[in-house]
């Protein structure tokens, strides 16, 4: 379970990052991103460390290769707490980036992992989204 104070901070920063991006305010975006990154680093390897903060950081990381590294860190943290929701969403996000980078086999592996962990979650639409992308990649 993520610490409530940290969750609120991460969620608020995510909303502000979206708004800064929408308005094209790069300076504000960069400052907010550094705040989010600081939360992740400050909490790393403590009882406040949680995959949610790392996944959010990766979501806002512009460099795709760097985002994959952060998603991988989030994935390891999700495995440590056996969070099926996070395991599924992180693996799916990784697959989307891997497709964009032309890493089809890695994307298929990520989607297969997402499908396995999504088996235990409630979100039927998300499960369908995983299946759809996996089916598309396997058909290519």
Structure description:
By secondary structure, this protein is mainly alpha-helical. The protein is built from 7 helices and no strands. The radius of gyration is 15 Å and the shape is globular.
Beta-strand percentage range: under 5%
Taking the sheet with the most strands, its summary is:
none
Q: Catalogue the unreliable spans.
A: none
* Distance, first to last CA: 39 Å
Query: Helicity, in percent?
Result: over 70%
Average pLDDT number:
95
The arrangement of helices and strands along the chain is HHHHHHH
SS elements, strand count:
0
- Secondary-structure-based class equals mainly alpha
How many helix segments? 7
Q: Radius of gyration over alpha carbons?
A: 15 Å
Give the overall silhouette: globular
Q: What's a concise summary of this model?
A:
This protein is an all-alpha fold and 140 residues long.
Mind sketching the topology for me?
Blueprint: H1 4-23, H2 26-43, H3 51-59, H4 64-81, H5 84-100, H6 104-118, H7 124-139
What labels would you give this structure?
0% strand, mainly alpha, 7 helices, 140 residues
């Amino acid at each position: 379970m993520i610490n409530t104070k940290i969750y609120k901070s991460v969620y608020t920063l995510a909303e502000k990052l979206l708004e800064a991006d929408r308005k094209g305010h790069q300076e504000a975006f960069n400052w907010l991103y550094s705040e989010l990154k600081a939360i992740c680093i400050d909490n790393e390897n403590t009882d406040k460390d949680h995959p949610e903060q790392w996944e959010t950081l990766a979501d806002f990381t512009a460099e795709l290769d760097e985002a994959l590294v952060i998603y991988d860190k989030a994935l390891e943290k999700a495995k440590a707490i056996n969070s099926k929701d996070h395991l599924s969403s992180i693996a799916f996000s990784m697959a989307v980036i891997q497709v964009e980078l032309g890493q089809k086999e890695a994307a298929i592996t990520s989607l297969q992992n997402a499908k396995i962990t999504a088996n235990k979650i409630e979100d039927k639409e998300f499960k369908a989204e995983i299946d759809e992308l996996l089916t598309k990649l396997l058909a290519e």
